[in-house]
Design brief:
By secondary structure, the protein is α+β, with helices and mostly antiparallel strands. A 5-stranded antiparallel β-sheet has the order 1-2-4-3-5. Helix 5 crosses helix 6. The chain starts with a strand and ends in an 18-residue tail after the last helix.
């Protein structure tokens, strides 16, 4: 593995905001700067031509040449044992460009902290708190060698929960030990389900149920049966949502398909090249409107930026996959809270 410095990572506005947060922890901090740093996992030493191409591909962002970075360093990388979305896309680009000797490239942010006196490791670790998301990132104090960043752990054997005569107690213990966050009702459901299957559950299956039933995504609620005052209700939440379409579908071209919906729009002149003549021209045609909502925005309180990225990614994916395809035009984010 070797590393390459990149452009400044954060805007001055963002640095000023973080500097205020750092000074709230330690008034000795006087200045803050940042740089991207790229870590390259190579299968063999790269030749000069490959290094030149790699350098060009990793040259992006601000071209401003700031002053030489000074101060003590805190490196923030994606959490060890994970692969960031940036890494998967960047590695694909490198491979398409012929850099097959690069097994993977990952990106981190190195912060340079200036202070009136040298800070000890304990003080630097406290300053790292506002600089990283401990749920998704790892930190390295005064080091640019993130040991284990590209470590591929061997697959662990399946663990099996022996339900035995008291399945609820056995599954409740696994729930506590493995942090699955299953409710009592979900535990009862799984015990009954695996009882019908006449076998014990594995840790992989239980983790899958834990994720499907978590606050990350409310899909299990949509088609759940409502029981109000002991009376079974005739329609689920999703059935009630569909009722509007069932009563009046005028102007709706597609609904409840491909995870998005299309309604009739107006007509407009679109300017694009003809695929046969390769000439640009205007074409007057209907311009229909595609809409969708995304449920994958939780838990934003725990990990706000990755949570929001998941929601935005779902929006773009489903809009492009609906019907004959579409291009995102505008995204709206609703924010609500409860007091």
């Amino acid at each position: 593995m070797f590393s390459l410095f990149g452009a400044p990572a954060l805007s001055q506005f963002r640095l000023d905001h973080l500097l205020r947060a750092l000074r709230a922890h330690d008034e000795r901090v006087t200045a803050l700067s940042s740089r991207w740093v790229h870590f390259v996992d190579d299968s063999r030493p790269l030749i000069d031509a490959e290094l030149g191409l790699l350098g060009k591909l990793l040259t992006y962002g601000s071209r401003a040449q700031g002053s030489e970075e000074r101060g003590q360093r805190i490196l923030v990388t994606p959490r060890v044992g994970t692969e960031s979305p940036w890494s998967s896309k960047a590695t694909d680009i490198l491979h398409v460009c012929g850099l097959d000797a690069v097994r993977r490239v990952e990106r981190g942010t190195v912060y340079f902290i200036e202070s009136t006196a040298a800070l000890g490791e304990t003080a630097l670790r406290q300053l790292a708190t506002p600089l990283h998301d401990r749920m998704t990132e790892s930190i390295w104090i005064e080091s640019l060698d993130p040991e284990g960043l590209f470590h591929d752990a061997a697959a662990r054997p399946l663990r099996i929960v022996r339900l035995g005569s008291d399945g609820h107690a056995a599954l409740a213990k696994a729930n506590r030990d493995w942090g699955l966050a299953l409710s009592d009702e979900e535990i009862d459901y799984l015990v009954a389900a695996f009882g019908e299957l006449r076998r014990d559950p594995t840790d992989v299956e239980l983790m899958m149920f834990a994720q499907a039933n978590s606050e990350h995504c409310r899909h299990k609620i949509f088609n759940a049966e409502f029981i109000v005052d002991g009376i079974h209700q005739p329609a689920s939440l999703f059935a009630m949502i569909r009722e509007t379409f069932a009563r009046n579908s005028a102007g709706v071209l597609s609904a409840y398909r491909d995870n998005a919906a299309v309604i009739e729009g107006g007509s407009a002149t679109r300017f694009f090249p003809d695929p046969l003549t390769h000439r640009y021209s205007g074409t007057h045609e209907p311009v229909d409107i595609l809409m969708k909502v995304e449920t994958h925005n939780h838990p934003t309180a725990i990990s706000p930026f990755p949570g929001a990225a998941t929601g935005a990614g779902g929006e773009i994916r489903d809009e492009g996959a609906t019907g004959i395809g579409a291009k995102p035009k505008a995204g709206l984010t609703g924010y609500s809270y409860r007091t």
